[in-house]
């Protein structure tokens, strides 16, 4: 049976990308919109079932190195001043691993190919500054980190060990006190959907997705660095052998760009096409996006690079008249305001897990005569 290319789907749907039904990718069509609709925004859960929280009895606990421990209801939180902005985030495991580009397709890479760049999204979030809540509690001078506790727990999804672990992550105090680190209760104008952390999630603007703890029930101010399972055993990669630091931990989103138009499998014609895509770099602005139609031999600036809104990606467009029918390898490459640019190769091949991939991605398209 022939499988229709992804571009021919009539109703885009979330794409399951692992057997445990814990991760669903945003479909390529939904990445063409500036705002990814809630029902198509990727889902990354460590356990199949989301915790179901009764908003009437919900309490957010704030304790640890604080003068006044708090227990806040949903209504208490809603009464605080509201912050609203767009933010793009991606999972550390977004984008295909390089084997997909360089070797014959292996079984493990089929999943990679299907998920594409869809373990990411952009949405408008609304909530309250974590800073306001921490100030209400009074952070002691002994504090150095803030730990966030989700309501979800269970055995580790990969090896089943530990047999019982809670989804918990921490932030350095400086990022926790940044006014744009928010406790979000709204996503695209709707109450936070169940899959995205109802009733409350942390939203760490400009940082990788795993930091934004969903189903948030506890905020614990610590006088030490938190060494929980999801800080020290997951979401880090091995550094190049010889580096004095053995591991790399992911915080700010690295500079990266993708092509969203055409979608994979779409056939173009020699009559011309408006290429489009997105570029982002966590807290930094995107300075430029370049595009190549010949596999990286020659580059030009894209016609239009739109400014971002808040912490959103920057969208770009570029008009292209293919000179002849054939197969072309397109690439886009973003540079941020600090001058950081995407590497041409996968940045940490010695780790072998495909995390933190912000390379320039080749994208093959077929052009036919009009
Ligand atoms: N409580 C909790 N928070 C969580 C997770 C989780 O499994 N449990 N997954 C994290 C990961 S790895 C990512 S990439 C993002 C995904 O957010 P989303 O499902 O809303 O897209 O949530 C993060 N926060
Ligand atoms: Mo993630």
How would you describe the overall organization of this protein?
The chain is mostly beta strands and 370 residues long. It has 2 domains: 15-249, Sulfite Oxidase, Chain A, domain 2 (Alpha-Beta Complex), CATH 3.90.420.10; 256-368, Immunoglobulin-like (Sandwich), CATH 2.60.40. Helix content is 9%, strand content 35%. It is built from 6 helices and 24 strands. The protein has helices at 74-78, 99-102, 107-115, 130-137, 173-176, 229-232, and strands spanning 15-16, 23-25, 43-44, 60-64, 70-72, 83-90, 120-129, 145-154, 165-172, 181-187, 190-191, 201-204, 216-222, 236-238, 247-249, 256-261, 267-269, 273-280, 286-292, 300-301, 304-305, 314-320, 326-336, 363-368. A 5-stranded mixed sheet has the order 5-4-13-8-9. Strands 6, 7, 10, 11 and 12 form a 5-stranded antiparallel sheet that branches. The chain has a 5-stranded mixed sheet with strand order 17-24-23-19-20, with no helix packed on it. A hairpin with an 8-residue loop joins strand 14 and strand 15 (247-249). The longest helix is centred in the N-terminal third of the chain and has 9 residues, at 107-115. It is globular and about 70 Å long. It starts with 14 loop residues before the first strand and ends with a strand. 38% of the residues are buried. The mean pLDDT is 93. Bound molecules: the ligand Nc1nc2c(c(=O)[nH]1)N[C@H]1C(S)=C(S)[C@@H](COP(=O)(O)O)O[C@H]1N2 and molybdenum atom. The ligand Nc1nc2c(c(=O)[nH]1)N[C@H]1C(S)=C(S)[C@@H](COP(=O)(O)O)O[C@H]1N2 binds at residues 41-46, 91, 150, 152, 167, 196, 209-210, 212-215.
